[in-house]
Write a structure and sequence with these properties.
- Helix 8 packs parallel to helix 10 and helix 9 runs parallel beside helix 15.
- This protein has 420 residues and is mostly helical.
- The chain has 16 helices and no strands.
- The radius of gyration is 29 Å and the shape is elongated.
Length: 420
């Protein structure tokens, strides 16, 4: 004879429904106010509504629950219309209707219903913070960029075909768009961290977060800043070097999204290079602690859609070039294409090479050398930018660091593959 556990008993689900009503109702009870204008809906109303939802689903299924939901919605509209407040709002009425539905949901998915009830209670109790955040903390530019990012991830990404198309079957629209979303998301994350932490922690965090957008551009900007104000030299050096740490983090994320086998083959070179850059950057950060931090930092925008789209075009072009050279010249053609692309952007080259692995045109081990070639040529670009923008003290500190970082990557590859 099979015995039914406590959690399988109907009384258990009814108990969860009652707890959901009490939880949400307790929060609403504190918002009722006092006097003749106080709300009529409190802890008893919400507890009853949740139990009503559970009983309705038990007795009449989804149809009776829908009828009860319409009835509660009608009663809520009547209470809203009779409210003496000039602007009563609909939050309590909508919360009551959702509580009824959550009560019905407990009879089928009690864990899900409980979790949603907690989320609803948090949203209700965070009213003041959410209003202040939307009206005073969040700027219009930030809101617009958040909507663009949401549309790119939730609307456009599912519509992108997940197959390789075009000449040489080189282009996968969904993979390309994933990379665009990652670039925007990482850039927005750096923006948020810089805004939350502020300029007091100096140029190190600024350089690190800006490196997610463009390490080469960050090095150029830090060189110019060190030339303008010698007091910021060590902080500018730390920020410039730490921007290369962001490069390797971003490379890891990009390869993870494109082809995990390529990332597995490159994890040691990337780890060696990233650790070397981090150690070198931390050293100059410690030196910079004695320097005066900038009074303000120009945040700019969370991300640039134009930059992300340009990056998508670059990725597509490099994918086509790498596939064509691989078709015509074999593995050596991919190395040449990646090295050339690396002068402008190493991530686009990495995506192109990893895409060749995904389509079976290269093995994961064969992808290591082209990607390291792109990292090397990209380091040459950074050295040139440092020489053009910074003073001799900045240059003399940055160039050895960049050389050590790229050498660490090649040393990591030497332990991984039989190239040497």
């Amino acid at each position: 004879m099979n015995s039914m556990s406590l959690t399988d008993q109907p009384i258990f689900a009814y108990g969860i429904a009652l707890a959901i009503g009490l939880l949400i109702g307790a929060e609403r009870e504190r918002r009722k106010g006092i006097g003749p204008t106080r709300s009529a809906m409190g802890i008893r109303t919400f507890s009853t509504a949740s139990l009503l939802g559970a009983v309705s689903l038990t007795l009449g299924g989804s149809m009776l629950l829908a009828v009860m939901a319409l009835a509660v919605a009608g009663l809520s509209m009547m209470a809203f219309a009779l409210s003496q407040e000039q602007d009563p709002g609909l939050t309590t009425e909508v919360a009551l209707l959702l509580t009824l539905l959550l009560g019905g949901l407990t009879m089928r998915e009690p864990v899900l219903a409980s979790g949603l009830a907690v989320i609803l209670t948090i949203l209700l109790s965070a009213r003041s913070f959410l209003h202040r955040f939307a009206n005073t903390i969040l700027s219009e530019t930030e809101l617009n960029d958040a909507l663009i990012l949401a549309a790119a991830a939730l609307v456009l990404l599912p519509l992108a075909p997940d197959q390789y198309l075009g000449p040489f079957n080189a282009l996968n629209p969904r993979t390309i768009w994933k990379i665009v979303i990652l670039i925007m998301f990482i850039s927005a994350t750096g923006y948020i961290s810089l805004r939350v932490m502020g300029p007091r922690i100096g140029l190190s965090i600024t350089g690190f977060t800006s490196g997610f957008v463009s390490s080469a551009a960050t090095i150029s900007a830090m060189g110019a800043r060190s030339a303008q104000d010698s007091n910021l030299l060590w902080g500018a050096i730390a920020g410039a070097v730490l921007s290369t740490v962001a490069t390797f983090i971003q490379m890891t994320v990009v390869l993870e999204a494109t082809n995990q086998a390529t990332l597995l083959a490159l994890w040691l070179p990337l780890a060696c290079a990233g650790a070397t850059a981090a150690a070198y950057g931390v050293l100059f950060t410690i030196i910079a602690l004695s320097q005066k931090a900038p009074d303000a930092v120009n945040l700019g925008q969370p991300f640039s859609l134009k930059t992300a789209l340009l990056f998508a075009a670059t990725v597509s072009a490099v994918m086509l070039l790498a596939a064509a050279l691989q078709h015509w010249l074999g593995k050596e053609g991919v190395i040449v294409a990646a090295a050339i692309a690396g002068f402008a952007d190493t991530h686009s080259a990495a995506v192109a090479v990893a895409s060749l692995v995904a389509t079976g045109k290269l093995s994961a081990n064969e992808a290591v050398l082209p990607i390291l070639a792109s990292l090397t040529t990209n380091s040459i670009t950074k050295i040139v930018l440092a020489m053009l923008s910074g003073n001799w003290r900045f240059i003399s500190a940055i160039i050895p660091g960049l050389i050590m970082v790229i050498l660490a990557a090649w040393v990591g590859a030497a332990f991984t593959l039989d190239y040497f």
